[in-house]
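Repro:
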Amino acid sequence: MSEHRRILDFLALAERLKTELRHSWLSSGRQESVAEHSFQMALMALLVHRHLAQPVDLCKALKMILIHDLVEAEAGDVPFFDDSGRRAQKPARERAAIESIRARLGPPLGQEFHDLWHEFERKSSAEARLASALDHLEVQIQHNLAALESWTPAEYDLVYTKMDRHCAYDRFLAGLCAAVKEQAESKMRAAGVDVEALRQRHGVDSSQTDGGDLSG
């Protein structure tokens, strides 16, 4: 296969991410696609990278963000709280998908995509930790922009359980996480959700100041 045909073949695969839907809704009431999730993450990286205590290679981080969900073009998206067999099968299906992508692209690009995907999965670099934090933050930011009716009851709890550990390593990201949670709580309170009960269930001190220090 010529390199031109190889690129076109790969883009035909990646195009599936434009129609692979996530368990997130947009403010318009339409479900978010995987491609839209990756796009928003890339914008977030551009906005926050200069504020991090540990410098990152922005180009490498952006590559990782674009690559991390490419496997879902073959494996599909599985919601975080899915309790079916699909969740258990997800790691193996995604590993098989990145091997398929490596073969499709051929060396050296296929190997680069493969290595960056595994680096993201291992969280073994500053760029991977940033991409992972943004991956989890983007989910909640999008939920905050959508109608609360699109949330499942489990997603009220995920406000307190899904983001923090991925953001805690950096002061700015921890502050952004706190601001995202504050936004979520305001949305829930406005809809009559018992936020104080949620806070108690997750051991959050109700007297603590909402929001966070967003300085670099």
